């Protein structure tokens, strides 16, 4: 007998693309369908294998360079010279007017580029992207052998004091083994120059890292996202910012987030 | 054209556009290259095609008003890859499943020895898939695109993305298991 969900809805669930009602329906279905349970496990394993293999290839530097060259080499006036390079010939008196204009243009490029680098939040509202990218990197790094935990313990009463004296904030350490998220340990990590506490939870054969650091910002509702096939949820509560990240499905991660935020 | 008032206005406008391009599109150069690399199955061709697609994106950036610059760029890259394949390797587009590529690579003992290496095994299995399966897998698993983004990049109805991914994953798994059983056969022969 073959279950028709195995090759359809299961993938939507795996990818966290089902709405809450359909996800709950599928979870209900999982209770009575061993075929889907086995396939979900197999698909999660396939995903982990793909993620760990590091198949994504970076662009050769040449592409970036030639694109940069093309960008700075074109101009709306039809002139092909780079405005930035024209800044220096200010001493060429004969062409004082165009030079003055080009200097101004170059200064504008500088200001705009600088502005866009310094103020990603204001201009794009996506300032968290860099932090998220850094956390994805830290998560990947933690999956390397020997990098996962500094203190290996399933006992929250061992993990909690371990953080004391090492950091000046107290991350919420709780074991959720009865809910299927056993605490495996903790470690300290440095993400973009910030020392952060990391709690490590297990979910079947998968690892969930929860990055925690103090913040002065207001509490925020959980914000899910995904990058490079990893799901993450970011939220702030009681002066802490937390990011849970893993290759488990989005609903699984949301379940852990709820437990931690309780 | 002399840089008159009109010219300088245009110039400033363009500088803003340029900065916007740098801010929105440049962070996705790796994604653009990676997609081309997997669709074309090679770094050299991918370099040429991705570069051309990026220049095209720059030229047509004024036409971009949407929110998702990555999906917009990847759509251009994907189209560039398709045109390139049509022109240079039309067989690729009609290939259902590259029998030649897969079992062959799984057959030599040397490659099998290294095939324990997930990366090589997966690369071979992925490259043996038809391009339309390969692209959805790369977009989902390597770039982390949502179904909505995959639909817009591949011009596929959003309702088809889930089943395309499902079939692609089954084929990939099938291909990996074939590789693994070929490996077992070889191992037994060695004994």
Describe the structure.
The complex is a heterodimer of chains A (262) and B (191). With 262 residues, chain A is of the alpha+beta class. Chain A has three domains: 4-53, no CATH class; 61-118, no CATH class; 126-261, Phosphorylase Kinase, domain 1, CATH 3.30.200. In chain A, 43% of the residues lie in helices and 20% in strands. Chain A contains nine helices and seven strands, in the order H-H-H-H-H-H-H-E-H-E-E-E-E-E-E-H. Chain A has helices spanning 9-14, 20-30, 34-53, 61-73, 96-118, 120-124, 128-142, 156-163, 250-261; strands spanning 151-152, 183-191, 194-203, 206-214, 220-227, 230-237, 240-246. In chain A, strands 1-2-3-4-7-6-5 form a seven-stranded antiparallel β-sheet, sandwiched between helices. In chain A, a hairpin with a 2-residue loop joins strand 6 (230-237) and strand 7. The longest helix of chain A has 23 residues, at 96-118. Chain A is globular. The two termini of chain A are 41 Å apart. By secondary structure, chain B is mostly helical. Chain B folds into two domains: 10-94, RNA polymerase sigma factor, region 2, helix turn helix motif (Rna Polymerase Sigma Factor, Chain: A, Orthogonal Bundle); 96-191, Winged helix-like DNA-binding domain superfamily/Winged helix DNA-binding domain (Arc Repressor Mutant, subunit A), CATH 1.10.10.10. Chain B contains eleven helices and no strands. In chain B, helix 2 (29-40) crosses helix 3. The longest helix of chain B has 33 residues, at 158-190. Chain B starts with a helix and ends with a helix. Residues 1-13 and 97-115 of chain B have low confidence and may be disordered. At the A-B interface, helix 1, helix 3, helix 4, helix 5 and helix 6 of A face helix 1, helix 2, helix 3, helix 8 and helix 9 of B.
